[in-house]
Amino acid sequence: xxxxxxxxxxxxxxxxxxxxxxxxxxxxxxxxxxxxxxxxxxxxxxxxxxxxxxxxxxxxxxxxxxxxxxxxxxxxxxxxxxxxxxxxxxxxxxxxxxxxxxxxxxxxxxxxxxxxxxxxxxxxxxxxxxxxxxxxxxxxxxxxxxxxxxxxxxxxxxxxxxxxxxxxxxxxxxxxxxxxxxxxxxxxxxxxxxxxxxxxxxxxxxxxxxxxxxxxxxxxxxxxxxxxxxxxxxxxxxxxxxxxxxxxxxxxxxxxxxxxxxxx
Length: 264
What we know:
By secondary structure, the protein is α/β, with parallel strands linked by helices. The chain has seven helices and eleven strands. It has helices at residues 4-7, 12-18, 23-35, 64-71, 83-90, 129-142, 220-229; strands at 55-58, 76-80, 98-102, 113-118, 143-154, 171-174, 180-191, 194-202, 208-216, 232-238, 252-259. The strands form two sheets. Strands 3-2-1-4-5-11-10 form a seven-stranded mixed beta sheet, with helices on both faces. A hairpin with a 5-residue loop joins strand 8 (194-202) and strand 9 (208-216). Helix 3 (23-35) runs parallel beside helix 4 (64-71).
């Protein structure tokens, strides 16, 4: 199954168990709650007292960060095309504070949000240039004047896919009910910045599942050019969750941008 971690009800809990709250969530939560609504480039998230922001979490998955943003007092909309992932999101404590939408960026209303985030490398799901350009155009339309966009994408210079092999990626995922799922990943193709790979899952009792995915790795220059072409000004590109320079952090490209003007 393609992207089974979000579309297969048996794999959704495995994804949640394997991907708990982390420093990336801290980064995006602090960015939204403390910095993005100041109207100036983001430098230090420690300030407080900013007004609530109308937040869009595009590709929200199972809603880990989405619910936390709502708990911080922001009106939040979580959008994802995967029904099973959204079903899990709706079961989270505090999920009733979020507006959940099963869909894509194409259906976003105009000028309805102050901040849009794409986390957990959702930006890499848009493999072709046309897909990515359409998504950015949709986000520009959905953000109000001066609205902020923030997303993460793995830095291709770090070559993270080299570790996606049956030896280095082998792991055991413990589910809330105590079951242990053995998992590993293998890359099946790498071409022109696109990486195809498959996750393998072995459940107790012999049940085995596979989930295939395809991601696009774009460099900093390519990300900057695409974001600016969509009508944004790039304010910062970080290399990690502690706001390190590119190449000196966690192998990430964390982009923070501001919408310049109303799109046509």
